[in-house]
Amino acid sequence: MAAAPHILIVGGGYVGLYTAFNLQKKLRRGEARITVVDPQPNMTYQPFLPEAAAGAIEPRHVVVPLRRVLRRCQVLTGLVTALDHERKVASIEPLEGETIEVDYDILVLAAGSIARTLPIPGLAEQGIGFRTVGEAIYLRNHVISRLDLASTTKDAARRQKALTFVFIGGGYAGVEAFAELEDMARGALRYYPEIKPTDMQWTLVEAAERILPEVSRSLSLYTVERLLERNMDIRLATRVESMVDGHVVLTDGAEFDAETIVWTAGIKANPLAALAKGLPVDDKGRLVCTAELQIKDVPDAWSAGDTAAVPDLSKKDDPNALCGPSAQHAVRQAKRLASNITVVLRGGAPKKYVHAYAGSVASLGLRKGVAETYGVKVRGWPAWIMHRTYHVSRVPTFNRKVRVVADWTLALFFRREIVSLGEIQHPRRSFESATRH
Prior knowledge:
The chain is α/β, with parallel strands linked by helices. It is about 30% helix and about 20% strand. The chain has helices at about 15-25, 50-55, 65-70, 125, 135-150, 155-160, 170-190, 215-230, 270-275, 325-345, 380-395, 400-410, 430-435, and strands at about 5-10, 35-40, 40-45, 65, 75-85, 90-95, 100-105, 105-110, 115, 125-130, 165-170, 200-205, 235, 240, 245-250, 255, 260-265, 265-270, 285-290, 300-305, 310, 360-365, 370-375, 375-380. The strands form seven sheets. The protein has a seven-stranded mixed sheet. The protein has a five-stranded parallel sheet with strand order 10-17-11-12-13. The protein has a three-stranded antiparallel sheet with strand order 14-15-16, with no helix packed on it. The longest helix is centred in the N-terminal third of the chain and has 20 residues, at about 135-150. The N and C termini lie far apart (about 70 Å).
């Protein structure tokens, strides 16, 4: 009897988790072996990161443990450093020890995306990313610690630098993080009588002429107007020239010092796709895929999500249109991908992926938001409700849905916890200090 085919899924994000989850439901026992490889043992639901950073959701509730959900899959915690599809071998670097090689029969490359950065002086030293729960926790602690510093220092220049917060990138991730954290900081000032809201400087820098390109111009303008009402600085058609030692220099001539600089200026495909041997990529480093989510002209290789250039068949007037890098597409593509792999294993023909983009929702802080679904524009608290309703329906597992709703329910009766757990970043600092005395 021939051995069951081995399905290797590289990546445990939206596509990786949902593909593996649906495969283990669809495949009969012994029909195939499934292995999922990711550097993290969990999947992060990124749309909830702004609320996790602002304290509206417990950070542990926005991550889904892979081993708990994928009970019929083998989960390897490690980094795939090389793929040779001609030999059907993946090189995996575990957390410790030497690199191992894993053979496979069917490949699903769903490594996702990484932050798209630019060669800006000082970015590597001063910038804070916003793609992981660790970065969200760090940013929350950092913002509150700056309030602590500003409330005690006698140095006026240092105080202003501590109270200056810069976000670079006006897409959904940037705008939501910008708005949620300002809302949190403003609420925290009730405990800092030494600081007035006008003492804080919140600046959003966007290279394009508008923010939130995913929604209509009217909703984009509405968002800008609401943020300006909160005394937040929005700089459009502006780039950052330098941020060395926290001294921010903008192309519009503005210069100021900031101790908090958050980089949310877009994403790009994981470089593993371009490095993989025998897999075709486009000019943006994405895997060239068919509408069936198969990698073009490559047997037994599949992809979806941010790593893949998948034709968008819903846009019939544009034959070259591709699906955008969104969770909305990723989750649906993963379900189609699992169904197609199952069908092909059983000798059938795969189906094309077709989904018309439903729209977008965004939170702008507590009880504030914008939404545009199927052409209908919603603003204010109704949009905020839509944002929460949609995303709680998308977050994986019933367990996580209940925990997130419980966090929101408690927030109706109790104020946000305003505390900086600084020792999380340096847990051994106090012990090391004790050993020197």
